[in-house]
Amino acid sequence: MKIKRSTFICGLVLFLSGMSVFCAEYPVEPYSSKVNHDEMALMYRWVGFLTQNGQEADASRHAPEIPLSFLCGERSSREWVKADNAKITTGNWANGTRLHTLRWRDDQTSLSCEMQLTEYRDFPAMSWTIFLKNEGTGETAPIHDFKALDTWWKRADDTMPILYRSQGSDGRTEDFVFVGEEMRRSMWGKSRTVRMDHHSNALFRQASNYSPFDSDTRPSATWLPFYNLQTGGDGLIVGIGWNGQWFAEIGHDGNGTCPLSAGMEHLHAKLLPGEAIRSPLMLVMHWSGELMHGQNLFRRLVLAHFHPQKDGQPLSTPICCSTWGGWPNQIHQEIIKIIVEKKLPYDYYWIDAGWYGKSETDCPNVFQGDWGTVGDWIVNKYRHPETLKPISDSIKNANMKFLLWFEPIRFTRGTDPTVAHPEFFVDPGGGNLLLDLGNPEAKRYITDTISGLITENGVDCYREDFNFDPWPYWTHQEESDRVGMREMRFVEGVYSYWDELHRRHPNLVIDNCASGGRRIELETMKRSMPLWRTDYNCFPDLKPEATQAHTFGVAHWLPSNSIAPLDGKPDTYQFRSALTSGMTIGLDTLDRPLAERQEEEWDWWRTRISEAQKVKPFFYGDFYPLTMGNHDLENWLAYHFYLPEKEAGVLVAFRRPKSDVMAMTFDLTTIRPDATYQIEDLDRGETLVLSGEEIRRNGLAVTTTAPRQSRLLLYRRVNP
After folding, report:
1. N or C end: fewer C-beta atoms under 10 angstroms in the chain?
2. Residue 360: closest CA among 376, 372, 378
């Protein structure tokens, strides 16, 4: 059967219109991430308006105003923060960006406002952070209604605007599902407003009845902090960077104008003399053409500017061997020995929770025994009498790097630090305390503690978990005229804590986790990678089809992420369900000892891990959906990734357990009809050379022999 490009469906859709159309003209790369002139021209004019005192004003698509607002008491920033009165300085281009600083001062409120605006040389995008400071001798009136983004955007034609976004990471089958919805209430009511905030998110979670937690304010628990507003033949992608509770509001007046606002939700605070606050980071990117072109352009922007870099290149997401910290040293040494003997090509050796604390009991796995008490950040002497350094040394000798789990912000009541320094913690009652990273002494304590453990144990990747909702702690005993300040200082403290770890350990990689990927946002993404994108894969009854759909959904936004197939037995279908730019692959010592496994089983592991290493670079390329992205057992799921610079790609396809369709034929629009291609079938061990004309005329057939099978094909151009 031939896959046709689907039309956009009115209302809520649980799939992306990403299937290709086959026609005589052989369209090539409609979803390419190559920037076009129209995109850059519009963004150039918009940045010019902001950085040249309004001289490039263009009210045809966006508001001719500074795209932010706030109130100080009753006085609106609109009265004094204007394009034509900004004092502007512009830096030099460096690493593809240029910083413009816009400054204003208001004698009436004694406030200064600074907008640090980043322009991107190779992308039609800009980002900014707003800083407010009290430059007077007395307190200001309360700052409130602080919108780091406050503008409007007009559609390009008469098409109804469509809002695309992805659900967050909540440990369920629907994590990351990419949804689109028209910005009208009905055929009669053509206006609509969509809001994402604490209240709206809680109502959504309760109505969906999908989570044990009615509220979760971690930044990517309910929705990822990005959205794409398609307005006819182009659109606007908005991203938010804030490791706290953000809000976003997207409207449509019924006539094509869409008011947009976003920022920190929970702020109503006076500023003391000399005191300053900041806004969330805001990102705006324009795109034109196909929807998936916009998504791929965003992926490229993320990889270049919102992903950890080394020597000017994005860090590669590792393939990790995950193990449990509650296992004693001897087991870890045996696993490392097996990895070396069987030549398993891992990048990192991962030790998760359970390695710390004072417990003197066994902890064989995450579901049994005492993990140890968070806050007792000492190596557990019962399980690791020689510390973790011998394990770390063996890891390095095996040409791997060492990843170690921490949860440094949640402390159990009664641990030594909570007794010695109660002033370091926010304590609303209950068993857990929040380390107050807004307290400089508390931040210095945890920085020194964790940095010391990193040094002493030879840690290469610092894995930070965050397993509770901070909202009750941030709001505990808030003063009515200082609402939001604890969250403000905490979020600032998170970023400066990570920055200091990077300063002390320049080669350190940070893995950002929070009960799975619940702290994915632009500021965190610049500093870390989500190596465990959802806690859905913590449990043995997971559906591999859901993991496939997670990859499909999150790929619209993130080029870098990782997860585990979980099953420790040879199962190629389940293993490939977790393929992405990185992978977490435990050898699973629980079902039977490693020494009892037969050589053919080790051959399977070696083949699968080598396969993951081989295909992972493609996941940084352009994403091309080929089917719907659901987890239904009756359907296929397929997609391919393409690296334009190498003219090569990978196609991944899954025939689900209840599908009676034996074969699918796909039109790969990355194939040029005037070229020749090598197709490598990793399942059958075959390599074919086909003309691009033949592939485009007939499609690329993917066949199976039974349900619940996966297919993996590499393709690359082999002639000029």
Report:
1. C
2. 372
152 Cβ contact list (under 8 Å, min separation 6): 62, 63, 257, 258, 259, 260
Give the separation between CA 242 and CA 523, rounded to whole angstroms. Answer: 6
Give me the residue label for tokens 């994402």: 196
Cβ contacts of 111 within 8 Å, gap of 6 or more: 72, 105, 132, 133, 134, 135, 140, 271
Single pTM value for the model: 0.95
Is residue 71 within 8 A of residue 144, CB to CB? The reply is: yes
Is residue 330 within 8 Å of 391, Cβ to Cβ?
no
Cα–Cα distance, 129 to 284 (Å, whole number): 12
Q: Which residue in this structure is represented by tokens 């009809």?
A: 673
CA distances, 443 to each of 120, 408, 448 (Å): 33, 10, 9
Closest CA to 91 of 117, 68, 65, 115: 117
Residues 6+ apart with CB under 8 A from 201: 215, 216, 221, 222, 223
Q: Are 523 and 222 in contact (CB under 8 A)?
A: no
Could you report the average pLDDT of every consecutive run of 10 residues in the chain (720 residues)?
31 33 60 92 96 84 96 98 97 97 98 98 98 98 98 95 97 95 94 96 85 86 98 97 98 97 97 98 97 97 97 96 95 95 97 95 87 92 95 98 97 96 95 96 98 98 96 95 98 98 98 96 98 94 96 98 87 96 84 81 96 98 96 97 97 98 96 96 96 95 97 93
- The amino acid sitting at 341 is E
Q: Dihedrals φ, ψ of 706, to 5°?
A: -165, 160
Residue 587 in tokens: 């050898």
Tell me the residue type at 339.
I
Alpha carbons 218 and 225: distance in angstroms, whole number: 11
